[in-house]
């Protein structure tokens, strides 16, 4: 009776929520050409069962029951991103799964001999030697997080070790006990286990495997796979595409709209989400990619490379280039070069006279804050816990004085007093003044953008206060760097906006129009401002995705490409940094600190142009 009831509930939910999907998803799955095609690696053997990517290379396991064919049934290893493979131990063992943490690799095996029992094996030297740990029983799955290892077996249920395999305990006794484990998902927030007795069951633990709870809603959804990102749980399901949950208990929203086709796998690398989707009409599987947290999807055109109806696993390796790997039962391992979307709309030229290459980076003293760029906005303020931190366009988050400064809605450039400022693009100029921003020029450009220049000298402005409709051409001098308004020294405060003129009383000045001219240069974090939504006395608003708007290509693009086997070389004015190519697998971050701008002179003082001196 329980089985019939579940089927009835599933049928009802499928009808109701499929209708919801139809009307709530503005854009269905999209078919577009992938940037690079999927390619077979040199491991297209029929019985590859598992893959695991590590900083050292890629491990793959083979599990064939055709013993009369004398299969290797062990571990393969590739150090060149899947193009060449060598045999790396556990021969004839029948490898069913692989996982790793730190410098330890774990592999589960099915077959046992008098000398080598079945179960879990551990290597501390990247596959050169293997030792048996845990129970002596055929093992199906292994996952590891920190020092905790979960081991799934074929007939002895679930086992746990909290010391990386030194000691073990069988868990899930009584009604919770499951004999065969075929899915383990581990995250710092939650653990999910799928197993079988008479029926397929799901259990979860939020205390690292100490206590467990039955998850009947996942059984009703026919969950296949999980992913946790930004405190949201993404669930690949049989008929509701991808379910998103806030509380890890109930449905928050649905994403994907793959026409109720089953989603078999989920994976994320950086800002790219991947989903393996089976087209039930053609019985062919494809892998789709989303760059906006699952709202829109595009095909990676897997079907042009391999015809398959199932997907065992998705993995990735980062580097130059980065690759995503797919393991397809009966087909082996395929790979595809990963591309990260970075929008550009280059139209901005130089901001000041005699601007040198890369000056636009070298002169920054304060960044656009991608978390809450709400400086001066009186209707909504950033939460108190964020008031001392800033997120810049590289995705770096820091407190003052590491990164300046929280809620900043533009860029501050350290320039000598009196530096001539130039229009970076054609447009119509307007002059304004406010106590905080001082003498200000706004230029409305024909492409819908507006640029803003604050703290200028009163003299030589292209448009005086409230003077409007002054045509400017790119390169025209629009004013000089000054110290008017709220400033601690001579500098240019520069903003870029793409205004919403429909907002009453604000138009050009509402923060929803703010954008970062450097775009968003982090492939592994989402831009918080692009996805930020809020409601205030003026209505509901959203932040804005930023595009790279400079005509000049800064050295940042060079840094992204510098690790292709060559030494990294950066020239930043009088700073020269060289890094050997041998360390390229390591994550690197650069910080450049500038001296504090000079203290503003009193009214009795005279500033000496081009210096940091004031004379009484």
Q: Give the mean pLDDT.
A: 84
Per CATH, the class of the largest domain reads Mainly Beta
Helix content bin: under 10%
* Tally of contiguous helical segments: 4
Domain M23ase beta-sheet core: 407-498
Protein name: M23ase beta-sheet core domain-containing protein
GO molecular function, one term: metalloendopeptidase activity
Question: Which terms would index this structure?
Answer:
single chain; 616 residues; mainly beta; Methylamine Dehydrogenase, Chain H; Glucose Permease (Domain IIA); 3 domains; eight-stranded antiparallel beta sheet; four-stranded antiparallel beta sheet; 4 helices; 37% strand; elongated
């Amino acid at each position: 009776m329980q089985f019939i009831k579940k089927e009835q509930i599933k049928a009802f939910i499928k009808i109701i929520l499929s209708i919801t999907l139809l009307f709530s998803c503005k854009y269905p799955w999209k078919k577009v050409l992938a940037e690079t095609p999927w390619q077979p690696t040199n491991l297209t053997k029929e019985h590859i069962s598992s893959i695991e990517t590590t900083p050292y290379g890629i491990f793959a396991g083979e599990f064939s029951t055709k013993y009369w064919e004398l299969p290797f049934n062990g571990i393969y290893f590739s150090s060149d991103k899947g193009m060449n493979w060598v045999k790396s131990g556990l021969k004839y063992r029948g490898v069913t799964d692989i996982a790793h943490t730190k410098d330890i690799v774990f592999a589960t095996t099915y077959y046992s001999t008098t000398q080598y029992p079945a179960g879990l094996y551990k290597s501390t030297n990247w596959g050169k030697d293997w030792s048996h740990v845990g129970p002596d029983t055929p093992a199906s799955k292994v996952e590891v997080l920190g020092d905790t290892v979960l081991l799934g077996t074929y007939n002895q249920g679930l086992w746990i070790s909290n010391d990386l395999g030194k000691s073990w305990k069988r868990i899930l006794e009584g009604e919770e006990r499951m004999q065969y484990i075929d899915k383990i998902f581990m995250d710092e927030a939650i653990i999910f286990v799928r197993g079988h007795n008479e029926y397929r069951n799901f259990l979860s633990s939020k205390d690292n495997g100490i206590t467990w709870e039955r998850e009947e809603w996942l059984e009703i959804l026919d969950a296949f796979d999980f992913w946790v990102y930004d405190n949201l749980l993404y669930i690949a399901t049989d008929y509701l595409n991808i379910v998103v949950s806030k509380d890890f208990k109930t449905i928050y929203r649905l994403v994907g709209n793959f026409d109720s086709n089953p989603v078999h796998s989920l994976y994320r690398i950086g800002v790219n989400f991947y989903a393996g989707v089976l087209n039930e009409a053609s019985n062919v599987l494809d892998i789709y990619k989303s760059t906006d947290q699952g709202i829109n999807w595009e095909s990676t055109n897997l079907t042009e490379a391999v015809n398959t109806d199932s997907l065992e696993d998705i993995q990735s390796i980062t580097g130059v280039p980065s690759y995503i790997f797919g393991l397809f039962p009966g087909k082996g391992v395929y790979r595809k070069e990963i591309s990260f979307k970075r929008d550009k709309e280059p139209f901005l030229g130089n901001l000041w006279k005699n601007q040198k290459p890369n000056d636009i980076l070298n002169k920054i003293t304060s960044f656009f804050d991608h978390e809450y760029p709400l400086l001066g906005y009186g209707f909504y303020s950033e939460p108190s816990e964020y008031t001392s931190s800033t997120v810049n366009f590289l995705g770096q988050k820091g407190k003052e004085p590491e990164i300046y400064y929280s809620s900043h809605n533009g860029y501050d450039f350290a320039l000598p007093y009196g530096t001539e400022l130039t229009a970076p693009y054609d447009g119509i100029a307007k002059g304004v003044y406010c106590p905080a921003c001082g003498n200000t020029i706004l230029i409305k450009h024909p492409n819908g953008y507006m640029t803003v220049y604050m703290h200028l000298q009163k003299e030589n402005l292209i448009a005086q206060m409230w003077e409007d409709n002054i045509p400017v051409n790119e390169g025209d001098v629009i004013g000089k760097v000054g110290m008017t308004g709220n400033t601690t020294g001579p500098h240019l405060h520069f903003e870029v906006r793409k205004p919403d003129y429909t907002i009453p009383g604000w138009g050009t000045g509402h923060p929803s129009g703010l954008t970062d001219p450097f775009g968003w240069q982090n492939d592994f974090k989402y831009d918080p401002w692009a996805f930020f939504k809020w409601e205030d006395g003026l209505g509901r608003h959203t932040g804005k995705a930023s595009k790279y708007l400079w005509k000049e290509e800064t050295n940042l693009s060079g840094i992204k490409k510098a690790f292709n086997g060559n030494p990294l070389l950066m020239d930043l004015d009088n700073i020269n940094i060289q890094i050997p190519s041998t360390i390229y697998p390591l994550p690197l971050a650069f910080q450049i600190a500038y001296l504090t701008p000079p203290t503003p002179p009193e009214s009795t003082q005279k500033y000496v142009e081009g210096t940091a001196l004031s004379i009484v």
